[in-house]
Write a structure and sequence with these properties.
The structure is a single chain. The protein folds into two domains: about 150 residues, Elongation Factor Tu (Ef-tu), domain 3; about 110 residues. The strands form two sheets. It has a six-stranded antiparallel beta barrel with strand order 1-7-11-9-8-12. Strands 2-4-5 form a three-stranded antiparallel sheet. The chain is α+β, with helices and mostly antiparallel strands. The two termini are about 55 Å apart. About 45% of the residues lie in helices and about 25% in strands.
Length: about 325
């Protein structure tokens, strides 16, 4: 019987066990799961108008300033014209206040004062003639009272005409001019605001990017605030991941990372650009074993190496925070 074969077997099994244990004890680098994303820009509807033209398609790459969607402008143009007319009217009123009263108005006020003075003189003379007759009881007392009232009323009309003439001669008050300036500024601002609304009916790409979604179609009338176009913008995508609580303290903004994209060989260099301080519940795709009871922190890792402009949003990614992690 060969005893050498049986004598070496325990040592071989011991070596194999050590290898397995060492492999199992190897520390995996901290990692987080998530998806690949691009910065998104939503262009909302500024007015409840009908879509009359769509100049792009979903997935199309456009430059900054490119026209995307056109809304009906008829009603907004009419409202703008009305506000502009009100602004011109306010400007004319202010110009009239600044110019002051016309010489013809002053001449008319002087004529009114002269007429009032003549009527007052006649009423006073009539009352003066009627007073002795009243004392002699040659006329009724009521006639004397009416004459006295007419004379007093005439004097009041004279004072009113004098005040009206003085107001015209002194010109426009500075408070009236200030009110006219404020009215003009308000009317001009309303017209300018409506003009901005008119320009926003023609949706323009604010940045270069890709048209990700056009939720509404030609002829639709979207409510105010509804997104008419959604764009993906930026120089490169970023990984949106959830950092498990055990490694949160070791992940910092500016820290380097390795990004593994599902379906793509190798990894890309990344850098943590944001991580939330408030925890959120672990996403469904990270519910593995003990991780199901843990909280995670939303983080964003920007890609800083390799060609990434052709990568679509939504791809699953895995991020390792080996570099720079204590």
């Amino acid at each position: 019987m060969n005893t050498n074969k049986h004598s070496t077997t325990p040592g071989a099994w011991l070596g194999l066990a050590c290898i397995v244990l060492l492999a199992g004890c190897r520390k995996e680098p901290p990692q987080a799961l998530g998806t690949l994303e691009w910065d998104r820009i939503a262009l909302p509807a500024t007015a409840p108008e009908r879509i009359v033209r769509i100049d792009v398609r979903e997935g199309q790459r456009v430059k900054a300033g490119a026209r995307l969607v056109q809304l009906e402008v008829t009603r907004t143009q009419a409202e703008l014209a009305a506000l502009q007319a009100q602004a011109r009217q306010a400007g004319d009123v202010l110009a009239e206040l600044e110019a002051g009263p016309r010489s013809e108005d002053i001449a008319q006020a002087r004529a009114n004062l002269a007429a009032a003075q003549a009527e007052a003189a006649d009423a006073s003379a009539f009352y003066a003639r009627l007073q002795p007759l009243g004392r002699q009881q040659l006329v009724a007392a009521s006639d004397v009272d009416r004459a006295r009232a007419a004379a007093g009323n005439s004097q009041a009309q004279v004072r009113a005409a004098q005040a009206a003439l003085l107001e015209l001669e002194r010109g426009t008050r500075i408070e009236q001019i200030a009110q006219g300036e404020s009215a003009l500024a308000a009317a001009t601002a309303q017209a300018a605001s409506q003009e901005v609304t008119l320009h926003k009916l023609d949706l323009i790409a604010p940045r270069a990017g890709v048209v990700d979604s056009l939720p509404y179609r030609l002829g639709d009338q979207a409510p105010v605030g509804a997104p008419l176009a959604i764009m993906l913008v930026g120089d490169a995508p970023y990984a949106r991941v959830y950092v498990p609580e055990p490694i949160r303290a070791d992940v910092r903004v500016g820290q380097s990372a390795r990004v593994f994209i599902d379906g793509r060989d190798g990894s890309l260099e990344g850098r943590v650009r944001m991580i939330r301080n408030e925890a959120s519940f672990t996403p469904y795709y990270a519910l593995i074993g003990k991780d199901a009871a843990r909280l995670s922190y939303l983080a964003e890792v920007e890609l800083v190496g390799g060609k990434t402009t052709d990568l679509p949003a939504g791809l699953p990614v895995r991020v390792e925070f080996g570099a720079g992690t204590k």
